[in-house]
Amino acid sequence: MPPAAPAPTNVKLLLIGNSSVGKSSLLLRFSDETWLPEDEASATIGVDFRVHRMTVNGKPVKLSIWDTAGQERFRTITASYYRGAQGVILVYDVANRESFEALPRWWSELETYVGGKDSGGDKVIKIVVGNKVDKEFSREVSAEEGKAFADRVGSLFVEASAKTAIGVKDIFEELVQKIIDTSALWDTPDRRTGAVRTDHGRGGVPGGVQVIGGEDHSASGCAC
Amino acid sequence: MSDESAFDIIILGTGLVESIAAAALSKAGLKVAHLDENAYYGGAQASLSLDEFVDYVNKLPGSSVSPTTLPHSRAYSITLAPSIIPAVGPLISSLVSSGVARYGGFRLIDRVSIYDKALGIVSVPASKEDIFKSKSIPLVDKRRLMRFLMFAAGDFEQLPEMEGTQETPFGQFLTDKFNLKDDVAKAITYALAFSDSPAEPTLPVVQRLHRYLRSAGRYGASPFLVGHYGSAGEIAQGFCRTAAVAGGVYILGRRVTSISSPTTPDGRYTITLADFPEPITCSTLVCASSTNSAQVHCVAIVDQPISFGDESGAPEASILVFPPGEVEGGVLNSAVTAFVVGESTMSTPQGRWIIYLSANCENNSGDVLKPYLDALLKVVQPLFTAFYAQKGEMVPVPEGAVVSTGLGPLLFPELSDRAAEAGEKLFADVMRRIGKGDEIYEMWPPLEQNDVDDED
């Protein structure tokens, strides 16, 4: 019998940022390789999360990438949205200064929900993304400014366009690469310290149960 | 007025019942705005950080909160509605069919114990295996207990024991029909059926027990699950997210300053909110139940596991039931339920446990629970305690609104399923109100393939 394929590492990523900066478009460009013209892509309807498989350092990784479901509009993103995230994609629109200036507020919301340095939140890898570089002619935020913000908060930085697909793969590949590299440092048996949890916080916890349909499903974690 | 502020339905309150209905209504294609005056989701079932919880309790009249401040407030998810979920029942079905189950994790309950005046904490056998293994139950009682459990798990309604006994007090039924001794009868009544009193009529107790016995084995030995991060409040957020994915609009933390009812049969409600640019309108207004149920609560945080008797290992999600009259100084006539949760429920930091005590009773303060907490803690000093009471009261509801069914007073394992049923009823009531009651609506349409998080 051939050896069983290694179980993939589960990684949860989140998108945040102001309305209309193109969070869903980035997600759909990356996962479905599609682009929804702007007149059809009003406020987010229907994007919940996408599952995407990739290989990092020769090992399978299963990404679940979550969209805000439009709940960023009146800043009512649920606390549960942030739970268990290992990577956060913080998006602004390079042609909309206001969306860039909102980044510090998003950053402080992140610190509230995934924690700051003292509660393990610094283990969550962040990437700042300047989207819509296809709108070069109406750019309001320079790449230097974007990079400076990312450097200041200690985050990765990429400029991209969901419309032309420029930079989109880089966002996810750089983020996931850094998560995998970093998790090798802390994903040890005593990783239960701090606020970071893996596997959507389900199979990875002792006694954890995944609730799915059907009649008989025993505990998927350890059966203690 | 812009099109963006006009909705088919506005729902006031993000409790579990309203959140379930919001998800189903949004999925049915209706334009829904879902409002809550609180800055957090979940209403009376919210999961709060420690700081938020302290703020909440301090506002309640008659409450007492210890002055201690603990670090890592956000690492606590303290539920306002301690509850568990039977593994077979309406809530689990809704979680699976709506897809909300994929948003979070769950944990099995470790064990249920009962408090005995003479013996202290006694573990209650959860399965046939436990009963066989138990050294504390004499053989003849084992046989009687097994016979009763087989009866309750089977088609009991057809059996001769149920003839003319539906209204019989359950305690008397156990003695008359199954010759069960007092201590065994007490364990069945309080710790297996979660009854409040041996005087409860037999039929509903056996029906409840039947459901619990059939729940055992679905996800593991225990019939019950608890959701991570405070369970009910986290689940409510999951349903709200599902509503939002289907286009529902969420506005939290804004006070409703006025509601004007329609003046003509096909008119609209207009609602103004504090700090909100323009009024929003809807044809159908939905709001949470007008009645709260009277309860007393205690929340305590400790830094060492509470021993639940002889078993090894620290209980991470365990229940202890205090029948009336078993605790020195305990004056309540109803049973008190203690629910102890640890880190693996994701609702506490490492090395911390939350103890919830609750009972259905009308009282001015939660202090009546102190003797029960002392009996549970023995020598352990809590790091934090809060005692509070929730009064049974009527809240006015806007004229003409579709109002959800009130939940309480509820036995400990019943909140989840009653909330799911009330959510389904609220959905059906709204559909009827807007003239779609005759159409056959699946409450939860099949999940799209893209939404399916395939398993490895």
Please describe the structure with a list of short key phrases separated by commas or semicolons.
heterodimer, A: 224 residues, alpha/beta, Rossmann fold, six-stranded mixed sheet, 20% strand, B: 456 residues, alpha+beta, FAD/NAD(P)-binding domain, Guanine Nucleotide Dissociation Inhibitor, domain 2, Guanine Nucleotide Dissociation Inhibitor, domain 1, eight-stranded mixed sheet, seven-stranded mixed sheet, 11 helices, GDP_dissociation_inhibitor (chain B)
Rg of chain A computed from alpha carbons, rounded to a whole number of angstroms: 18 Å
Level-1 CATH class name of the largest domain in chain B: Alpha Beta
Largest sheet properties of chain B? 8 strands, mixed
Continuous helix count of chain B: 11
What is the helix/strand order of chain A? EHEEHEHHEHEHE
Distance between the termini of chain A: 30 Å
Q: Summarize the biggest pleated sheet of chain A.
A: 6 strands, mixed
Question: What strand line-up does the widest sheet of chain B have?
Answer: 4-19-15-18-17-16-8-9
The helicity of chain B comes to 25-40%
Secondary structure: helix percent of chain A:
25-40%
Give me the CATH fold name of the largest domain in chain B.
FAD/NAD(P)-binding domain
Which residues of chain B sit in consecutive blocks of at least 5 with pLDDT less than 50?
Answer: none
Q: Please report the number of helical segments of chain A.
A: 6
- Write the CATH fold name of chain A: Rossmann fold
What oligomerization state is this entry in? heterodimer
Pfam family, one (chain B): GDI
Family (chain B): Belongs to the Rab GDI family.
Protein name (chain B): FAD/NAD(P)-binding domain-containing protein
GO molecular function, one term (chain B): GDP-dissociation inhibitor activity
